[in-house]
Amino acid sequence: MTKPGLTLYLAAPRGFCAGVDRAIKIVEMAIEKWGAPVYVRHEIVHNKYVVDGLRAKGAIFVEELDECPADRPVVFSAHGVPKSVPAAAEARKMVYVDATCPLVSKVHVEAERHHEAGLQMVMIGHAGHPETLGTMGQLPPGEVILVETVDDVARIAVRDPSRLAFITQTTLSVDDTAEIVAALQARFPAIVGPHKEDICYATTNRQASVKAIAPLIDALLVIGAPNSSNSRRLVEVGRAAGCAYAQLVQRATDIDWRALEGVRAIGITAGASAPEVLVNEVIAAFEARYDVTREQVETAVERVEFKVPRVLREPA
User: Fold this and answer.
1) Has 131 been annotated as catalytic?
2) Where on this chain does dimethylallyl diphosphate bind (predicted)?
3) Domains of the chain from N-terminus onward
């Protein structure tokens, strides 16, 4: 029986970013250096396949530091942690390795610098997300006001409108964030912005690649986890760019084949915490059902690399 024809437009860049790659290496190197188990506070990155793979190697994932024994190493996730977490680890004389993405750490440093200058912070981010909690936890309570939408900007009460700065979560929608920034600047003309864009290169690049393939496709699949902020934003960006059908799938088994009946051009991308092996799994699932033509649409080339902490590069 002849398979129907289908063109897969593969967005590039897609998948792992430098911060995710570094965080995974940190856990693997910690297990190699100190042996299993190594504890990890929160999922190292938001991807079940990755987390399960590290668990099989000897990582134990917990949500809070007090779930970790003091005599085993602990790794802090790529999303960053409040200052109270490493302080508590030091108080317990624990060995810990901070796998916070350097681009998240940059936002932490910005927040501290503005705080030292006497500015109150406004953070654009998602309530409850570990990155938001970690960034807000760099400063004393009340020093960071969280806004999630343009409407929030109209409601916030600040200490002094002339002494404000804003920062953002690194994995937000570029377009949505620009609207919130414009609202902040309209209401608080003196507000100070980041020296360099807080939304990270990987988030920006993956959203740009989705926009590039959107006019070419009938449907978009984003490979990523439901708790991955950058993956969920890719779905939203796809819909905003005109993809009537844009869905998040963790693996090939999540694909809704009925919804794709009659579709002849599909876009595929992956969030920054989704490994390429899952992209290949999805492509293979399509090739089993269709006569597939692959087209890669590359909008940027990423050459960013981050070093792992020195403690892991030194002899045990």
Assistant:
1) yes
2) 46, 79, 129, 228-230, 273
3) 5-16+201-298 (3.40.1010.20), 18-101 (3.40.50.11270), 103-187 (3.40.1010.20)
Region of 68 (left: φ > 0; alpha: ψ -120 to 50; beta: rest) is beta
Q: Name the residue with tokens 């600047």.
A: 185
List pLDDT tens digits, range 250-265.
999 999 999 999 999 9
- The phi, psi pair for 71, rounded to 5°, reads -95, 10
46 annotated to bind ligand: yes
The DSSP element (H or E) to which 247 belongs, if any, is: strand 245-249
Q: What single-letter amino acid sits at 227?
A: N
Is 68 known as a binding-site position?
no
Which DSSP category does 47 fall into? -
114 is annotated as contributing to ligand binding: no
Query: pLDDT tens across 28-65, in order?
Result: 999 999 999 999 999 999 999 999 999 999 999 999 99
243 annotated to bind ligand: no
Q: Is 227 exposed, middle or buried (0-12, 13-18, 19+ CB in 10 A)?
A: middle
Q: What is the DSSP string of 133-199?
A: HHHHTTS-TTSEEEE-SHHHHHH---S-TTSEEEEE-TTS-HHHHHHHHHHHHHH-TTPBPPSS-SS
List Cβ neighbours of 248 (8 Å cut-off, separation of 6 or more). 222, 223, 224, 226, 231, 232, 235
Amino acid at 273: S
Location of structure tokens 């624990």: 94
Please state the pTM of the whole predicted model: 0.95
Residues 6 or more apart whose CB falls under 8 angstroms from that of 128 comprise none
Q: Does the annotation flag 200 for ligand binding? A: yes
Please tell me which residue in 43, 131, 197, 236 is annotated as part of the active site.
131
